Amino acid sequence: MSSKSAAPLLRRPFLLTLPALAVLVLVMAVPLGVIVYRSFSEPAPGLQNYVWFFDTPVNLIVLSRTFSIAFWVTLACVLVAYPYAFAMSVAGPRLRLLLVLCVLVPFWVSGVVRTLAWVILLQDSGVINRMLMAVGFEKVRLIRTQLGVTIGMTQILLPFMIMPLYAVMRGIDMRLLQAARSLGAHPVKTFFQIYLPLSLPGVFAGATIVFILALGFYITPLLLGGPQSTMLSTLIQQQVLSLLNWGRGGAMGVVLLIATFGLLGIASPFMRRKYNMSGGSR
Amino acid sequence: MKARLPRLLLGLTCLLIAVWLVAPTLIVFPMSFADKKSLVFPPTGFSLQWYENFFTNPQWFGSLIVSAKVAAMVAVVATVIGTLAALGIERMRAGPAGIIRAILITPMIVPGVVLAVGIYAVYLDTQLVGTWTGYVLAHTLLAIPFVVIAVGANLAVFDARLEVAAASLGASRLSTFFTVTLPLIMPGILSGALFAFVTSFDEVIVSLFITSPALKTLPVQIFSSMTRDADPTVAAVGSLIFLATSLVIGLGLLIGTRTGRRT
Fold it and tell me: What is the pLDDT of residues B18-36, one digit of tens each?
């Protein structure tokens, strides 16, 4: 019975994607539509929620802080991931497996538990502060500060930077470097003129992913941060759950959505170039 | 001689990064054996009371059961839906395929809280807050991208000529699918199912909005415990999850290498 009713499905590929698209419409498109609608309609139709958002200094401070935290996290991720991904791409198979394992192990426990670990490490009487004091430094306030949030987020987002970087670096033909060296180029020059440009698509792809994910972070800033490191997501949650102000919360949500997809739109042409390049080298 | 110093520096840097990546995960192990109700590291004594608390306190153990059930349902639903979508995309022309794939991956990119607020709004109107259906639907949405990516990656290396060969030997499309295509993309489907399970088991932001005291998932319980007080039970849960995941991945690797040897 099923062989007659199901066979046409395999011939009409679009039908196969319909269940997935239906879930997307019901659980994502409709909810986001409701948010956008409410931002323009509650408590009264108009732009008042957006006027309020951009007229209230606290909101603008939080918005710019969200971007600045995302920026520092991305920069830290690039700087930390670059040598690591490079080592992965040149290591032997055994060492490479070990390095990959170290990237994946953090995924084995839930994100909330990982944040708990950072709470333990960063607290005033925590491991990091005691180590600092043992070496003779002053106590640093880490928990409930922007620095603490940045440290925790960087560790959690690092795998998203390492993996695309590694994917690109693995494809770089090391003979190009040997060629440059044999022609008399200094190692530093070889790196900056040949290796770095070739690896940039990976940097770009990873940085885009990390920045976008960092913009929407909620749990880590909430648990590691304090009032001075609130990010936009927390503000949205407060408006909706504590103040029951769906209009204002919705407007903030729309701002965050536009920032996220705007950035993705700007970055995606550059990311596509990566695929062309890798396709060309093959 | 000249190359040794940079190599040493690179090695040291990577060692530091590896420690930084792994250490925060492992710190939950000693914490879970703490004797006092505090989160000071290292703990001052040894006890198993937090494990006992996890297994005997209905708040904790109940939420584990809820999470396991929801994740199992999501793994089934999302894997079926996602695999169908991946098969559809593979059979489309490049243009539409790219668009559909991009659309299906958006749940990964939409900021969690914005999505959660939207889902909460819809669920309030449809009485889905704190229901099994509510959790499974929301988690399925978030799991579909992982299944589409995992199965899609497997289909990309799948040799389509095998299907042509089967058809030329007289197999119907459907029997070709079940006897040729499906077994060959099984690794992708299984890893997709695993990703779907983990996505649901781990999901916290949307769950925090659609939770109810009667039906609470484990991450929500962990989160509320963390915001309430310093309870090492969280560390015990973390350690148990870590062990369980290691076991699953270890088994997966074992099975993977076995089937790898067979082919």
Answer: 998 888 888 888 888 988 8
Count the alpha carbons within 13 Å of A260 in the hemisphere toward its beta carbon.
Answer: 26
Whether residue B85 contacts residue B72, with contact meaning beta carbons closer than 8 Å, is answered with no
Q: Return the domain boundaries, chain A.
A: 47-109+144-281
**Phi-psi group of B203: left, alpha or beta (phi > 0 → left; psi -120 to 50 → alpha; rest → beta):** beta
Size of interface A-B (CB pairs under 8 A): 242
Q: Which residues of chain B have pLDDT under 50?
A: 1, 261-263
Q: How far is B102 from chain A (nearest CA, A)?
A: 11
For domain B45-262, which CATH number applies: 1.10.3980.10, 1.10.3720.10, 1.10.8.420, 1.10.10.10?
A: 1.10.3720.10
Mutation choice for A interface testing from B26, B110, B117, B120 by most A CBs within 10 A: B117
> Could you give the angle at the alpha carbon of A276 between the alpha carbons of A271 and A279, nearest 5°?
130
Contacts of B254 (CB under 8 A, 6+ apart): none
Task: Indicate the CATH number for domain A47-109+144-281.
Answer: 1.10.3720.10
b/e burial code for range A241-263 (CB count within 10 A of at least 16 → b) = eeeebbbbbbbbbbbbbebbeeb
Interface membership of A265 toward B (CB under 8 Å): no
Q: What is the ipTM of this complex?
A: 0.88
Q: Mutate which of B113, B182, B218 to test chain A, going by most A C-beta atoms within 10 A?
A: B113
Residue type, A134: A
Most confident of A78-92, A125-139, B16-30, B158-172: A78-92
> Is the Cβ–Cβ distance between A74 and A210 less than 8 Å?
yes
Q: How far apart are CA A68 and CA A73, in angstroms?
A: 8
A chain contacts of residue B111, beta-carbon cutoff 8 Å: 215-216, 233, 253, 256-257, 260
Give pLDDT, residue B242.
87
Residue B34, CA distances (Å) to B29, B40, B45, B125 in order: 10, 9, 6, 45
User: For the whole model, what pTM was predicted?
Assistant: 0.89
Neighbour tally for B188: CB within 10 Å: 22
